[in-house]
Amino acid sequence: MEKSIKSLAVNWGLYLGITLVVFTILGYVNLDLFTKWWFGISMLILIIVFGIISAMKSKGLLGGFISFKNAFTSYFITIALGLAISTVVSIIIFNFIDPEAAITLKEKILDSTVEMMKGFGAPEEAIAEAVEKMEAEDNMFSIGKTLQNFIFQLIGYIIVGLIVALVVKKNNPDEA
Predict the structure, then answer these.
(1) d(CA 92, CA 85)
(2) Which of 3, 55, 70, 110 is most buried per CB count within 10 Å?
(3) What pTM value is reported for the model?
């Protein structure tokens, strides 16, 4: 892969990272945002869009033709770097700057989960079991849990990236 494609993907990864940091800081300032479904969906869509843009820009850089591997690599570098930056900031905020915010957020997420389950008509036993599981969890924002979440997110976005690369790829007929 050409160096310019890698640097393009790194740049888009930095843009994504900065954008996710802004979202994280907004969520930290107003912890209720982290309990809203639309906030999470917005971040999910944003991450995928940045990955798609990176793959498409790489395709443009190569004159409109890009292999599956190059499209996926461009997408992956962007997503991995953006998520890594966001993960580091979350670890810093919720473990070093303001660990109390992690406790408050856990309570807010617990309340939100109970309300959502009640809204869906879940039985009381299921709600009680969910509450018990969440309360038993030590610190959902610990460094280990946050890194584990990063890995699981990355795996999910890799699956999306494979589909994106399949759609974006376009082989050069002159090289066939």
Answers:
(1) 11
(2) 55
(3) 0.91
What gap in Å lies between CA 42 and CA 84, rounded to an integer?
Answer: 18
Q: Do 99 and 33 touch, CB atoms closer than 8 A?
A: no
Q: Does a structural domain hold residue 109?
A: no
Domains identified in the chain, total number: 1
Residue 78 phi, psi dihedral angles, 5° rounding = -60, -50
Half-sphere exposure of 1 toward its Cβ, with a 13 Å CA cutoff? 21
The answer to whether the CB of 79 falls within 8 A of the CB of 154 is: yes
Residue 61 belongs to domain spanning? 3-98+146-171
CA distance 62 to 60: 5
